[in-house]
Amino acid sequence: MATLVDGFGRTFPYLRLSLTEACNFRCSYCLPDGYRADGRPTFLTLEEVRRLVRGFAAVGMRKIRLTGGEPSLRKDLPSIIAAVSATPGVQKIALTTNGCLLPRHVRLWREAGLTALNVSLDSLQPARFAAITGHDRFDEVMEGVEIAQGLGFAAVKLNAVLLRGLNDDELPAWMDFLRDRDVAIRFIELMRTGTNLAYFERHHYRAEALEQQLIDTGWMLRPRAPDAGPAREYAHPDYRGRIGIIAPYSKDFCAGCNRLRVTARGDLRLCLFGDFGIPLRPLLQSDDDHEALAARIASQLGLKAAGHGLHQGNTGITPHLASIGG
Length: 326
Description:
This protein is α/β, with parallel strands linked by helices. It has helices spanning 46-58, 77-85, 102-112, 126-133, 138-149, 171-178, 197-203, 207-216, 290-299; strands at residues 14-18, 63-67, 92-97, 116-120, 155-162, 184-189, 220-221, 232-235, 242-246, 259-262, 267-269, 278-279. The protein is built from 9 helices and 12 strands. The longest helix is centred in the first third of the chain and has 13 residues, at 46-58.
């Protein structure tokens, strides 16, 4: 089996593939003014996605996460899921969504081959949820999560961006929520991007502080799977649910990196906060370019840095997380 390995011995079985930069929410930490199309070339087509995933599978990718923007805005999302599912070598297909279209579409996505689901839920209080996201859709998201829990997904996880002064006091409520629910909540430390410096300085909350609260109340760190995301996940014998911590500013966060990213326009990004993208789209126009595509992907790993530059204030070429899928 082919395996992608970089110069630091890290392997990469996990691809995060953005399907669109568009989003229908206006989250205060990402797109507070909403998405604005820029007139540049369109996002990857179904056929381009199929060729791309086939190329990555040939060099060892086993887990694909479909992201955005908001991927559910793609009307061909079920067809994309089915195409990824049919790719030899791909074992897991996950989707990250804001959840507002889950009640209408999640059954269809599951039937198409989706195996795991992540839903953004930045607060358990409807009014706070609306204030953070710009939309009063809390009830629809919660309805969709409940439907998803009955569909046999390998995992249903919730994502909450930690925001000082906005939702950093909700850990007790989340614990109550998780007591009898077989879901995981992952608290994500707010990251600085190219457009959110003032917001970051006002609302950044260190995830390690929350992690210490978990440890002090008896939560225990679980072993990490080779193709897992970046969360350090905790469990407690008194709770069915689990809590994950994604702390990009913590020591050695990048040492366990196991994922690459491709933007909605077909650029390979070796790091979420990297300074460059590698265009793959020219090699997605014909099945005849399959071997050249696989070779280009494999040859780029030598350029991957040991870690990001967030501690030095270097956010790379990422203006906001919707531009690359987080």
